[in-house]
Task: inverse folding
């Protein structure tokens, strides 16, 4: 079967657009495949009952507008409860976070999965500027126009695991980034992207100056100094006292085995653990191997650190250093990011169990006369739309 769309006044002479039914079906199946690649997980269970997790978090700008408190929602709620709101911001992974959907922090929104809007929000959640759709010290992230790469701070106790433009890390203006290469390694003074796996921003280094002593030692690159015009690291707020990298043009998890243009691939595993007491006892007699500070001249400068994938193997494990490390579990052990289960109804990428297949199955269950009538109405609707489109002005 071939469907011929009518010519319009804007179409070249004789340029009627034709499409076979099979072409249409193939196109729709390809769209479904692409949708499954973007949203491969099941979204029928909210993560709040699981407690604090390192997980993918989103912010709904519609539900947190008009000066209301910032809030974060899990992957499932971003689709099932806020998918139609049209203004979602993907924050990527955040540690120790509970979903705010269906809590008093979002009073105008009911969680469709837990069927509530009166739960109490978690007291331990922390919120930084990302929840207001602001990223980096430049407070900017425009997916359609950004160039280069953005890096997420591993430590995050000052910046709240914020994301930073490669140029901003050096203190360079973003205005000239469109004329430069997309690769951070081509920016003079920036480390080659393949030489490191993690990044710690200058704000978190300033809050933990002992980390600067590792700069230039095994597992750590030489320090990178930010030019003076750059502003201070954005802070974070909390209800309690309290290699990550992606292309700046990417719209959409953590690890070092596979990397895409988004954040490194999410890993599933047990929760992060602090150093066990046995380890402290075992290291009580070990001498401190914290490197001597080779960069005293950088004490008052904005310095960022880039870490290799094996940096944890080179951290001093004496009692004194473990006391500092126990407050930063991500430095002791790679964190596991909660990954929702894959959608069991998604089918294979070849198109099995697709919406089209379901539609064909439903269509085959009705009698032939009704099926012909349905197809006639659909075809008429398409023709009317094609004829009317040139005269529509928005």
Result:
């Amino acid at each position: 079967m071939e469907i011929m769309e009518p010519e319009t006044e804007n179409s070249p002479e004789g340029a009627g657009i034709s499409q076979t039914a099979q072409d249409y079906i193939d196109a729709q199946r390809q769209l479904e495949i692409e949708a499954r690649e973007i949203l491969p997980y099941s979204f029928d269970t909210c993560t709040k009952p699981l407690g604090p997790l390192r997980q993918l978090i989103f912010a709904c700008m519609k539900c947190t507008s008009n000066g209301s408190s910032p809030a974060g929602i899990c992957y499932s709620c971003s689709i099932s409860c806020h998918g139609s709101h049209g203004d979602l911001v993907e924050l990527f992974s955040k540690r120790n976070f509970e979903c705010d959907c269906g809590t008093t922090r979002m009073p105008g929104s009911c969680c469709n999965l837990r069927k509530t809007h009166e739960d109490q929000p978690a007291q331990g959640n922390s919120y930084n500027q990302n929840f207001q759709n602001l990223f980096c010290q430049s407070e900017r992230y425009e997916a359609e126009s950004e160039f280069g790469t953005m890096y997420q701070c591993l430590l995050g106790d000052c910046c709240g695991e914020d994301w930073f433009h490669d140029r901003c890390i050096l203190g360079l203006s973003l205005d000239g980034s469109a004329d430069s290469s997309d690769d951070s390694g081509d920016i003079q003074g920036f480390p080659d992207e393949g030489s490191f796996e993690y990044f710690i921003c200058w704000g978190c280094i300033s809050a933990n100056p002992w980390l600067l002593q590792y700069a230039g030692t095994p597992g750590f690159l030489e320090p990178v100094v930010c030019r003076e015009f750059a502003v201070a690291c954005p802070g974070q707020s909390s209800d309690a006292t309290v290699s990550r990298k992606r292309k700046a043009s990417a719209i959409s998890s953590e690890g070092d085995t596979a990397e895409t243009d988004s954040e490194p691939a999410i890993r599933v595993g047990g929760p992060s653990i602090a150093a066990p007491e046995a380890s402290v006892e075992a290291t009580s007699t070990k001498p401190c191997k914290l490197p001597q500070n080779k960069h005293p001249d950088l004490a008052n400068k904005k310095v960022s650190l880039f870490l290799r994938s094996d940096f944890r193997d080179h951290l001093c494990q004496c009692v004194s250093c473990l006391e500092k490390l126990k407050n930063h579990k991500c430095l002791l052990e790679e964190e596991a990011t909660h990954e929702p289960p894959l959608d069991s109804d998604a089918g294979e990428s070849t198109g099995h169990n697709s919406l089209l297949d379901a539609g064909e199955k439903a269509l085959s269950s009705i009698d032939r006369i009704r099926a012909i009538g349905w197809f006639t109405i659909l075809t008429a609707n398409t023709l009317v739309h094609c004829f009317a489109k040139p005269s529509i002005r928005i």
In short: The chain has nine helices and 13 strands. The chain has a mean pLDDT of 77. Residues 368-388 form the longest helix (21 residues).
